[in-house]
Structure prediction request, 553 residues.
Amino acid sequence: MDSAAQLSAPSRWRFYSNIGKRPMPLPLLLAALAVAAFIATPLVYIAYRGAAGGADVWLRLAQTRLAGLMFNTLSLAVAVTGGTLVIGVTLAWLVERTDLPGRTLWRWLLAMPLSIPAFIGAMVHVALWRPRGGMVPQLLSGWLGYPVDTPSPFGFIGAAAMLTLFMYPYVFLLSAAAFRTLHASLEEAARSLGRGPWGALWHVILPALKPGLGAGALLVALDILAEYGTVVLLRYQTFSSAIFLQLSGRYDRSAAAVLSAVLIVLGGALLWGEVKFQGQARFYQMTGSWRPAPPTPLGRWTPLALALVLLVVGMSLVVPVVVLVGWTLQGWLDTSYAASVWRFSAQGVWGYAFNSVWSAGLAAVLAVALSLPVAYLSARYPRRTSQALARLCQVGYALPGVVIALSLILLVNRALPFLYTTPLIVVLAYVLRHMPQAVRSSEAALAQVAPTMEEAARSLGRPPLRAFVNVTLPLILPGLFAGGALVFLTSLKELPATLLLRPAGFDTLSVRVWITASEGVYTQAAPAALLLILCAAAPLYFLLKREMRKRDA
Prediction:
């Protein structure tokens, strides 16, 4: 008994401290280096091609395009990021910290627009609101007997409004999770110091939400840099649309590489700015007995709060789904058209759905598998080297789909030409683009499993790989599934990389929606759009259900 007491505290301390000081296994380090090199290759190659583009290309673009594209892209990113912060935080506060009626239902409905690609939402609202021929102006003119002008959905204002409407769930989900985890004592301490409800919100609660707000704002801003379909439909030019035009319309790869290099610098600046914004501040719960803050009564503001929630849900979820269902039923009335669209073949909507699901599913599996050595090295051997490799594997956040497509076009043509005519190059683009989601999910899952469990298995004679497979892997599987679901969801919605890289005859749901919507044939675009939303809703439901279980635990 005495010997056990003598060994417990000091030896346990040495055991935990030695975990962080162990030398990194060479095979694991080499595997992580290989993954990081694979992820970073497009970044390095685009930077090289951009630098080698020639002074005349840089000068021509600087004189004609760069300033305008920079202004358009940054102004749109600022407007949408600000709009999503205002809407997302407001809705999260209403759902999580007030007595809003039906809060459980609103949690689900306010998150579901994440399953609708922004360009599909833009397609629906363009059909509704466009000044000439829009459904709403026609309806109003029929009722009133004279032409009625409605706000144009095109240009900067339309693009900012549409992207805000379909990207606010990023901020809403992160803000809602942060609101749920805040201790009631924070607000109580502010109240005891004389702060009212609004003062406590502004001076205590929102500063404590800084990490979540910064992460949400970063996701939105980087998505704006990568957005292609929405800005093209709404006739607003940004770097992504200009790069796509250089590749597919003018076949000027040097100019596309120069524009891509500038876009990578913008993405890197956003990542650096988010790190600086977060700073070294950390927020901890200092008491072991967590309890939620009591809901704030809305009182006479309840009808206004409900109207706001209904407006956002209606415009971002109900209206797009209802319109798409209506177009689908309208197309179904034409039996010959319906038979051609819904037939089980490569050129029917089920064939497009199959292409979308298997390519996004394979990308999710590969991304999670490749993330494991990097995440394990970062979680179990926290060194500057392992942390640098983990951060390097997240450069996909700064690489829009059109930039990754350009890098693969240039690289594969030189080194692996046989891949260029297969769908595997599309899968490769998905992995490169969405690897950060898998790495972060794997890191988070590993952080929740004590390293001592693996050490115990090794002390019983298990080799390191067997100890990981038998002990750690079953425990982190839910986190790995969450990372895979995120990669699957975002790969389903990827448009520019798929458009540029797909071989002949390989259409996904997003590509088919884009092609038919660009031609203005919305009844043909609607079935593929509905199937795409349903396919994306499945992983989103899994992620939301998992979050709800964690909240109730």
